Amino acid sequence: MSSQHLSEQEIIRREKLAELTKLGIDAYPAALYPVNISAAEIKENYKGEENKADFANVCVAGRIMSVRDMGKANFAVLQDGSGKIQFYIKQDEICPNEDKTMYANVWKKLVDIGDFIGIKGYVFTTKTGETSIHATEFTILSKSLRPLPIVKEKDGESFDEVTDPEFRYRQRYADLIVNPGVKEVFIKRTKMVNAIRSFLNERGALEVDTPVLQSIPGGAAARPFSTHHNALDVPMYMRIANELYLKRLIVGGFEWVYEFSRNFRNEGMDRTHNPEFTVLEFYTAYKDYEWMMDTTEQLLEKTAIATNGVDTVQIGENEISFKAPYKRITMYDAIQEHTGFDISEMDEVGIREVCKKINIHADEKWGKGKLIDEIFGGKCEHHYIQPTFITDYPVEMSPLTKKHRSKAGLVERFELMINGKEIANAYSELNDPLEQRTRFEDQIKLMERGDDEAMFIDHDFLRALEYGMPPTSGIGFGIDRLCMLLTGQVSIQDVLFFPMMRPEKMD
Questions:
Q1: Domain 3-148 adopts which CATH fold?
Q2: What distance in Å separates the CA atoms of residue 477 and residue 441, rounded to the nearest whole number?
Q3: What is the rounded distance in angstroms from the CA atom of residue 367 to the CA atom of residue 506?
Q4: For the chain, which residues make up each domain, given as ranges?
Q5: Model confidence pLDDT, tens digit, residues 255-271
Q6: Are strands 213-214 and 276-285 parallel, antiparallel or unpaired?
Q7: Considering only CA atoms, which of 133, 80, 70 is closest in space to residue 103?
Q8: pTM of the predicted structure, to 2 decimals
């Protein structure tokens, strides 16, 4: 950034950096700093006179968040990875000799809010009862050249928080510094993922990795991102799903595999969609979708408790319970309940007529399955606030799913709806290679009609199925959407550290 584009504060901070250098102070030292305790540990464990001796030589490090100037003494707040703690710094303590340079010229003139410093000293309780550190030594660890947005605090509560989404999502690093609670969302996300991983590991599942770059973007109906492999001189795609690779492993003899998969879909963005997102998929041999519904209930109930300590969450006006069992309703019954139309015996022409009557857009490129999906999404999905399994989908909507054992024209599939959105999608997997080839060919016909979300034919996957795949059930969970639910967030951008943004013009 050239000096002509710097703000006054940024110019002043660079001048302070130059001044520190003149004084022989390295504002970015590489040496190890001997931190021996965190802010949270001090606040949780210090009991005053009872254990004062245990806190006589503490060493903490973090970012200066605020300063109260009292002349020859200051109260300031330091924030480390565990939280905030107040410290007291006094000229005669820092500079006991006649030379007051360190305090007057460095602390008072050259240190700013946002700088990282190290503090050595002892813990005490102020007259107002606040646990604080009495600093006897400080060290500059990193000079901040850009001022932080100021967030006012009083009595432990924050005011004037930075709420501009453009700033928060684009500069997440600054958002994490100044907005209380943001870090907690991401800590809960990690707890959630760890709980899921533990649930699966304890039951004998094996975590695996599968390719992100694929020659065929299979396993889902979605528009892929495309790229080019220079050495092989072939087109490649970022994966839209990892399903077909996990099924290959079932063919190969693994009986329960799972993967936390980073997927990429070249589609729109809104409060529940980001082009790059995380999905958990797992596949289990000798199981079906009924078993998967039972397992999903158990998994989510345990995960909710591990994340929040309880099996309920509050989302706006709705208290959502993850306690099993969950409601189950077929897709056709759901559509009839919320539109008044029984479409179970209708062909594509009849369904198009229904779309017209209920004001659902029906693109000429879409086949029967896509039309049904649009009806459900537009008229039904938002009604399912409590966890609900939508079951028994039309075969046209599910090219990778086994036909229903007792209901003609349907497949053994469910989607889990919570708070009006799909959270999981599961099947009794299609393992008949001849039927799978026919389903893929039907997708190609849709592609020829102009449906850019239709599936490609994956000939290697068909070859794998021809070696034989045992009866299998599989599921995919939207990890980002599940995290939104368990942390009470209404936008997917709030559970992604770095959500997709339009490129920023940088000078």
A1: OB fold (Dihydrolipoamide Acetyltransferase, E2P) (2.40.50)
A2: 27
A3: 45
A4: 3-148, 183-326+386-495
A5: 999 999 999 999 988 88
A6: unpaired
A7: 70
A8: 0.88
